[in-house]
Every structure is written in structure tokens, then in C-alpha cells.
Amino acid sequence: MITWQETLLRLVIASVLGALVGIERERLDWAAGLRTHMIVCLGSALMMIVSAFGFQDVAHVPDVDLDPSRVAAQVVSGIGFLGAGTILFLKNEVVKGLTTAAGLWTVAGIGLAVGGGLYIAAGITTSLVLIILVLVKPYKKKFSKPKPIREITIKTDVGNSPVMQIESITRQYNMEFTQIVIQKADKADTNNILIRFKKKQHRNHYCI
């Protein structure tokens, strides 16, 4: 049976490791920040402790078959519902929050590791997560190519009808559009003409 001192140690370590990841997310002002990551890691550690030590009083009862891994296994699937709440589906096929959702899922795994007494594995995983979140992001922005989307924004003066220019541009780049939307720009004398295409194109801004 696990002692209360060991239980306290595991829960505190889980809270601290969850906080380290949560601070990085809190710094970027994501919905799942410091407290969320701490609670997820702490709760996962508690569930692992319960799974491993909570049923020892009936473990040796005849005709009782227990699988201590079942409670912990449900954490892995159950945390997906919480992670889904951090994902935002925006316009233009843009998805935000996937990294935070993956971080919550990993933090749950860290909590399970701490609850199972695997302190080294939990510490190494926390360090790697922080490296990925903090150090990899600048390199990703540097080397990743812009994602193509299906629209072009054309800025034009109010009263100017750029139909001929639009047709010329679309023919020049061999593009076939499906919709044209005229939007009021920030300036009173300017309109934004949004053109949506069938094939993915890179967004550009043309002044006519």
C-alpha cells in the first residue's frame, strides 16, 4: 500500500510538471492555460494512484478479477473531450488550438507517469514538451511555407468597377473563380473585393 507521504509527493510533482507546460500556454493567452494544465496533470496522477492502489482490499478476493490499468486507460480517451474544447475552426480552413489540445493530452500522460512512480519518464517528457513548444516554433515559422487558400482580396476605389481587371488577372494566372463578394473597407473611399476560386491559390493583395 502506498504511504500518504508518497501520495502527496506524486500529486505535488504532477501539479508542478503540469504548471511548467501551462505557463507556456498561458503566456500565449490560450483558453487552456496554467490552471487547466495543472488540474489535468494532477487529476491524471490521482486516477493512476487510484487505479494502482485503490482496489488492493479486494484484489485477492476469490473469483474477483481486477485490471488496474482500466481506470488509467480511460484518462487517455477521456481527455480527448477536454482537448476538443480548445480547438477552434476558423474561416479559410484555418484550425487553431491543435497544439494546446495535444499538450493537454500529453500532460495527462505525464500525470499518469507521475502517479505510477515513473518520475524520470515524466520529467523527460515535460522537458521535451517545453522544448517543442518554445524552441521549435521559431524554426517552424522560418522554414514552413504559407498555406495556400482559395481567395484573393482586391482593393479598389468606391465607384470603380474593376470587372475587366479581375478577368484579366484570373486569365493571367489561369484561375477559375466561383464567387465575388464586395466588402466595405476601413477607409470610406475603398472597397475590398473578395474572389473565391475552385483551386487553391496563394492570397495576394492587388491595388486597382
TrEMBL record:
The answer to whether the entry has keyword Transmembrane helix is yes
Main localization of the protein?
membrane
* KW Cell membrane (keyword) present: yes
Domain MgtC/SapB/SrpB/YhiD N-terminal span(s) in chain numbering: 11-141
Alphabetized, the UniProt keywords read: Cell membrane, Membrane, Transmembrane, Transmembrane helix
Q: Where are the transmembrane segments?
A: 7-24, 36-59, 71-90, 110-136
Q: Show the InterPro entries listed in the entry.
A: MgtC/SapB/SrpB/YhiD_fam (IPR003416), MgtC_SapB_SrpB_YhiD_N (IPR049177)
- According to its record, how does it sit in the membrane? Multi-pass membrane protein
CC terms in the record's Gene Ontology section: plasma membrane
Q: Which residues form a coiled coil?
A: none
Q: Where in the cell is it found?
A: Cell membrane
Highest taxon, organism lineage: Bacteria
Which protein family is it in? Belongs to the MgtC/SapB family.
Q: What is this protein called?
A: MgtC/SapB family protein
Q: Which lineage do the record's taxonomy fields give for this organism? A: Bacteria, Pseudomonadati, Bacteroidota, Chitinophagia, Chitinophagales
